[in-house]
Design a protein that fits this description.
Layout (H helix, E strand, L loop, with lengths): L1 E5 L6 H14 L7 E5 L14 E3 L18 H5 L5 E4 L2 H6 L4 H13 L3 E6 L3 H4 L3 H12 L9 E5 L13 H14 L4 E4 L7 H5 L6 E4 L6 H11 L3
Parallel strand pairs: 1-2, 1-8, 2-3, 4-5, 5-6, 6-7, 7-8
Helix pairs in contact: 1-9
Bound molecules: 2-phosphoglycolic acid.
The site of 2-phosphoglycolic acid (PGA) has 13 residues, from strand 8.
């Protein structure tokens, strides 16, 4: 299983360090899962972790360094040996207005640097209401320009209406979408959108779900550790 925590705009450096240290200690040698943590950029650092606990960045600009106020580039990530990035998250697409074109540029840049990329796709509510064919059409547009054969690609299906709302997609919805995407693209596929302690086992047990990308429910370290524990044999 791949279990990922996206801190979004939460936790200070101090809390992040404590979170990572505690999660790292909890991973036993028989934890086969790959665990990812995406702290805010102010909390990026060199953390000593086991091989299956990977620290990534929630975002970066497709540049080594330069004049891009408020952004970080690959030089800042190299300093901490960070080689994993989230790209295409719905909050960046919808709130921060990242276009597909800029997302594709970012994808190409970090792919060329060999980064592991968790690439997110997902439809808003008004598309969901139009049925599965429209949902798939929408998701395919989010895959335009993306080299899905890239060896270090992990996909995440995250319906926008399920993110941070407490409303999870039904098992049937997740099954249907994941089956189609998996048939088209043979890459690990995570589900994200209100995954929590009470539903993570059922979701991660689905045949075409390879793990979960979790926001809200992962910010408490004890809950996150329990989530890793519950899913480690799946
Ligand atoms: P959520 O966020 O778990 O709070 O719904 C998921 C995500 O944004 O990746």
């Amino acid at each position: 299983m791949i279990i990922a925590s996206n801190f979004k705009t939460n936790h200070t450096r101090k809390l992040t360090k404590d979170f990572i240290t505690t999660v790292n200690k909890s991973l036993t040698t028989n934890t086969k899962s790959e665990v990812y943590i995406f702290p805010s950029s102010t909390a990026l650092d060199t953390y000593e972790t086991q091989d299956n606990l990977i620290i990534g960045t929630q975002n970066a600009y497709p540049i080594q360094s330069g004049s891009f106020t408020g952004e970080i580039g690959s030089a800042q990530l190299d300093e901490f040996d960070i080689k994993t990035i989230l790209i295409g998250h719905s909050e960046r697409r919808h709130i921060l207005k990242e276009s597909q074109e800029s997302i594709v540029n970012k994808y190409k840049f970090y792919m060329n640097l060999g980064f592991t990329i968790i690439y997110c796709i997902g439809e808003p509510l008004k598309i969901k209401e139009q049925g599965i064919n429209k949902i798939l059409e929408y998701l395919y547009v989010q895959l335009e320009g993306i080299d899905t054969s890239y060896e270090n690609l992990i996909l995440a299906y995250e319906p926008v209406w399920a993110i941070g709302t407490g409303v999870t997609a039904t098992i049937e919805d997740i099954n249907n979408i994941h089956d189609v995407i998996k048939e088209k693209i043979d890459k690990p596929l995570l589900y994200g959108g209100s995954v929590k302690l009470s539903n993570v086992e059922e979701i991660c047990s689905l045949k075409n779900v390879d793990g979960a990308l979790i926001g809200t429910a992962s910010w408490n370290k004890d809950d996150f550790i329990k989530i890793i524990e519950i899913t480690k044999e799946l």
